[in-house]
Design brief:
Elements (H helix, E strand, L loop, with lengths): L1 E3 L1 H9 L4 E5 L3 H4 L7 E2 L2 H7 L8 E5 L4 H14 L4 E4 L2 H8 L8
Parallel strand pairs: 1-5, 2-3, 2-4, 4-5
Length: about 100
């Protein structure tokens, strides 16, 4: 499993690199706290993954990174995917490192 720091993801997005950021949290989790990302709940990701457009990096994120790590391992194993990354520390780390103005209360 490959990790990318929030700063690395932020810079890649700003540079418009071939990166797709996917928020796998449940809808109730991102109603009050979100960043710009494709939203696919974790339970739906495995069935949706084969239909996603090709990207150099697909970065999976959740609140803390734990669910994303588990899902990344599953996708790498089941689909032999080599372009799956995890936002290290999830949205919590993103807030700390990139957007301290964002609040998830």
């Amino acid at each position: 499993m490959k990790l990318l720091s929030p700063q690395e993801v932020h810079l890649a997005l700003q540079a418009q690199k071939d990166l797709l950021l996917v928020d796998i949290r449940e809808p109730y989790e991102y109603q009050n706290c979100q960043i710009e990302a494709l939203r696919i709940p974790m339970a739906d990701f495995a069935t949706t993954f084969p239909t996603l457009p090709s990207h150099e990096q697909i970065v999976i994120m959740c609140q803390s990174g734990r669910r994303a790590e588990a899902l990344a391992n599953f996708i790498e194993t089941e689909f032999s995917a080599t372009n799956i990354y995890v936002l290290d520390g999830g949205l919590n780390a993103w807030i700390t490192e990139v957007d301290p103005q964002l609040s998830c209360e």
